[in-house]
Design goal:
Elements (H helix, E strand, L loop, with lengths): L1 H6 L4 H21 L3 H9 L5 H25 L5 E12 L10 E12 L2 E9 L1 H17 L3 H10 L1
Antiparallel strand pairs: 1-2, 2-3
Amino acid sequence: CSFFEGKLNVSVDTIQHGVEGLSYLLTESSKLMISEIDFQDSIHVLGFSDELNQLLLQLYLDNRKEIRSILSELAPRLPSYHSLEWRLDVQLASRSLRQQIKPAVTIKLHLNQNEDQTAQVLQTDPSTLLHLIQQLEQALGEMKTNHCRRIVRNMK
């Protein structure tokens, strides 16, 4: 710590903030795979010299693929869909109620996670299932908007 303060005449906090800022700039730029021109526009507003801007650009171009591969390794491995089974159960009567209709939908969701297959069993009533379907259809509809398409395009 005293090396930086003594030799560079810069406080440790300033160095720490600089390293954190540089890390953030490179990680976010690599996540979005922004173009060379977009990167230059992003750092131009920081007010650095042209020489430093070129060094940062070269640092980004040289390391963006490696940064993306490291980020993909750090990303959590989420389960993926394999198959789905469902069953509709209807209770027509009970000892206390001779005439009743009580439907229930049972869903068995098979998932793949890290080469292993797991199953989740869920049960719901038809009205909740219909509400869930409507919400999912609404989300799919929102994915077709220009705003979402632009975000997805930048994520690739």
